[in-house]
Amino acid sequence: MMGLFDHLANFVGLRKKQVNVLVVGLNNSGKSTVINHFKNQNERCTDIIPTIGFSVEKFAFKNIGFTAFDMSGQDRYRSLWEHYYKGCHGIIFIVDSNDKLRIVVVKEELDMLLQHPEIAGQKLPILFLANKIDLPNSLTTINLVTCLGLDKIQNKPWHIQATNAITGDGLQTAIEWLTDQIRDIHINRR
Ligand SMILES: Nc1nc2c(ncn2[C@@H]2O[C@H](COP(=O)(O)OP(=O)(O)O)[C@@H](O)[C@H]2O)c(=O)[nH]1
Ligand SMILES: [Mg+2]
């Protein structure tokens, strides 16, 4: 069976290009769990040890560089994490759909991301993962579209997928969407 990211990696490898994907979200949304899926499925994956003081997970798989970090509770690190916005080709934005109390914080962070000078003018695909969908009180993807104002996003292809990062449910479809988007954008730019 193909690994979770093989589809994306094969495409990128063919183009002999480096693609950078950001994995963002509040702490506890499921970023590390998603990333561990990837690592478990791909022995060829190389870990890059973070060297700075806040929590950044970086790894590379073939020509794809993944950078993940927490967006919450560490405003003093904001300029450090925003440094990674430059040169990214796609964003995976993970939301804990069971964390209704912090959905307002998620919206604030999303709005800041979308307005950031390195992001605002770029036609970057954003994949939203409505994670922890297995929990009984989780918000539906339709609710999240409304709460986060996703229907108002301009000039960026976006997609929302319900996921259970523990079992991996929904991840394959989601990554395929992101791959197709990155491919389309690269082809259209030629
Ligand atoms: N029920 C449930 N728990 C999850 C899911 N994804 C992650 N978790 C749990 O949520 C907690 C935070 O996940 P983690 O990946 O560390 O979040 P991070 O802070 O964004 O890296 C951990 O206890 C995970 O086991 C999910 O889809 N469903
Ligand atoms: Mg983590």
UniProtKB/TrEMBL annotation:
InterPro entries documented for this protein: P-loop_NTPase (IPR027417), Small_GTP-bd (IPR005225), Small_GTPase_ARF (IPR024156), Small_GTPase_ARF/SAR (IPR006689)
Name of the protein this chain belongs to: ADP-ribosylation factor-like protein 6
Species this chain originates from: Ceratosolen solmsi marchali
The family this protein is said to belong to: Belongs to the small GTPase superfamily. Arf family.
Main location: membrane
GO biological process: cell projection organization; establishment of localization in cell; system development; vesicle-mediated transport
Its membrane topology: Peripheral membrane protein
GO cellular component terms listed in the entry, alphabetical order: axoneme; ciliary membrane
SMART domains membership: ARF (SM00177), RAB (SM00175), SAR (SM00178)
Keywords, comma-separated and alphabetical: Cell membrane, Cell projection, Cilium biogenesis/degradation, Cytoplasm, Cytoskeleton, GTP-binding, Lipoprotein, Magnesium, Membrane, Metal-binding, Myristate, Nucleotide-binding
Top-rank lineage group of the source organism: Eukaryota
Binding site for GTP: 25-32, 73, 131-134
Binding site for Mg(2+): 32, 51
Any matching Pfam family: Arf
NCBIfam families per UniProt: small_GTP
